[in-house]
Amino acid sequence: MTTDADNTTISIVIPVYNEADILRDCLPALDQALAAEDIRHEYIFVDDGSTDNSWDILLDISRNRPDLTLISLSRRFGKDIAVFAGIGRAAGKAVVVIDADLQDPPAIIPGLLQKWRQGHDIVIGIRRRRRGENWIRRLAAKIFYKLIQTISDCDLPPDSGDLCLLDRRAVDVILQFTERTRYFKGLINWIGFRRGFVEYTREKRKGGKSKWSYMQLTAFAIDAITSYSRLPLRIWTLAGISAAAIGFCYGVYVFVYTIVFGGRVPGYASMVMLILFLGGIQLISIGVISEYIGHLFLEVKNRPLFVIREIKAPDEKNKAE
Description:
With 321 residues, this protein is an alpha/beta fold. The chain is built from ten helices and nine strands. Strands 7-5-6-4-1-2-3-8-9 form a nine-stranded mixed β-sheet, sandwiched between helices. The longest helix has 34 residues, at 268-301.
């Protein structure tokens, strides 16, 4: 790894979705964080199909900053996909990923660079505190990290966010991935390499509002879990075996009771409850299987990961792809 600051370039990738209220504060904050660093850098803003005037603001900012690279996706493909769109354009020997909403403070970037210079290929920001988040979100996040740590082969550090630095070696590896469902935090921890960690306090939003509803967070968690673990499938396989064994034992009981005592076996209400319970188990198991089939469905279509509407880069004229 090259650590000579005079000859090193880093790329800063900033995904954007409906951040018009904060965008004009984002770039000065980044500039201030890097002012003391003797290092060349580039900024890559990726507009993930914003429905407000975020793209117009980025274009306006770029008129006085020709060093910016702006990428506009044709629609909203998701934050993780937008990150990959930016990483694919990054030319730096290291790539920093940071949100535009300033909840992850740009002031942490020098700490990431310091760990990188010490030889870490991946440096991950760890949220020591989460300001501005209610207890429900904090509890849900804690449960999610604990769950994915337990059931998957992905060593995902608790309270890690998307704020991270990737060495060029790590970037080249993750750009080889072809899967459609991408969980960025999972991928950068799955590939291995030497990891470093920097703790920070996640701040309140300085403008706008969160783009993640509880329903979206739940769907995101399901995608993450099913992308990195087959345990849910195995759980329902074991549940099916257990239910079959219980049913067999109950069948033997009914047979013996009828032969010995004759007549009908009491327990109509319990039978109804058992049928409803097993029916629920079957529907849940079908739902779990459907999640994995859904992943296969997306993979076999082999569509492009994203579509770029427009690119504005320092070394080329605007173009559509």
